């Protein structure tokens, strides 16, 4: 795998300096290896770099059925951290909830539920989150922010709604929340000379994979010659499956 940003992977062969690559253990399943360098790394860094979370703490995230969201659920579960997972309402919602719960999600709610007063009942059985992970923007972000603990942190790593992150002034004044951004490609560039941090993260993720605590996201395997169909499928709404091209 590329140690830093991908140097253009639409190729059959490539020649790279050894120090720019990471060796993937042979005992890691191919689909896990193919999806290891972005989503699980993003999830791992966001769970470990912004708040000092301990077993029993909670995290709230939107786009919980995304590749990163699925990795957050599994890594948090392995660390003993509770997850509150927000998804959009959809025709097959019960099926999606069942799949996320099977991955280790503690609570799965819709964006509509996030806005209801009944949320206070949820926080009677799970502590309010100290960390929120935002991949959507817009109203979803504002509502998640309302449920953060004082001095909590919201990390934005995507903007699927193509709407700005709107923050009430009261969240800064009375809750002292912190808003951060994260891009795993930049993290890898910033740590290009820090091989220990990179290899330690990869070793931890591979150990989770070996123990069955971190699986690849839902994937659809597509022959390379059918790449157009894969691109079209990836653009459809409510699709949680990664399109994996087979060479």
From TrEMBL:
Transmembrane segment boundaries: none
Cited InterPro entries: ADH-like_C, Mito_Enoyl-ACP_Reductase, NAD(P)-bd_dom_sf
Domain spans labelled Alcohol dehydrogenase-like C-terminal: 67-188
GO cellular component, one term: mitochondrion
Entry coiled-coil feature ranges: none
This protein's UniProt keywords: Mitochondrion, NADP, Oxidoreductase, Transit peptide
Transit peptide keyword on record: yes
Oxidoreductase as UniProt keyword: yes
Gene Ontology molecular-function annotations: oxidoreductase activity
GO BP annotations, alphabetical order: fatty acid metabolic process
Main localization (coarse): mitochondrion
CDD domains named among the record's database cross-references: ETR
Record localization: Mitochondrion
Domain of life: Eukaryota
Family statement: Belongs to the zinc-containing alcohol dehydrogenase family. Quinone oxidoreductase subfamily.
Stated name of the protein: MECR protein
Source organism per UniProt: Pedionomus torquatus
Primary gene name: Mecr
């Amino acid at each position: 795998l590329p140690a830093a940003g991908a140097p253009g992977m639409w190729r059959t062969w490539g020649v790279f300096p050894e120090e720019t690559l990471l060796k993937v253990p042979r005992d890691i399943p191919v689909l896990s290896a193919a999806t290891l360098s972005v989503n699980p790394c993003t999830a791992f860094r966001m769970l470990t770099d912004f708040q000092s979370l301990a077993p029993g703490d909670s995290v709230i995230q939107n786009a919980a059925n995304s590749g990163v969201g699925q990795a957050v659920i599994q890594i948090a579960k392995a660390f003993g951290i509770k997850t509150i997972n927000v998804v959009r309402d959809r025709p097959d919602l019960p099926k999606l909830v069942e799949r996320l719960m099977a991955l280790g999600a503690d609570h799965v709610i819709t964006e509509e539920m996030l806005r209801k007063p009944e949320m206070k009942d949820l926080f009677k059985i799970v502590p309010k989150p100290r960390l929120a992970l935002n991949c959507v923007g817009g109203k979803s972000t504002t509502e998640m922010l309302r449920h953060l603990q004082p001095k909590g942190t919201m990390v934005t790593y995507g903007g699927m709604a193509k709407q700005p992150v709107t923050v009430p002034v009261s969240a800064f004044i009375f809750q002292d929340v912190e808003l951060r951004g994260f891009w795993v490609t930049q993290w890898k560039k910033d740590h290009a000379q820090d091989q220990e941090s990179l290899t330690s993260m990869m070793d931890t993720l591979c150990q989770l994979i070996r123990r069955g605590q971190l699986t690849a996201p839902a994937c659809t395997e597509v022959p390379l010659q059918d790449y157009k169909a894969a691109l079209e499928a990836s653009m459809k709404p409510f699709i949680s499956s990664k399109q994996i091209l087979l060479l």
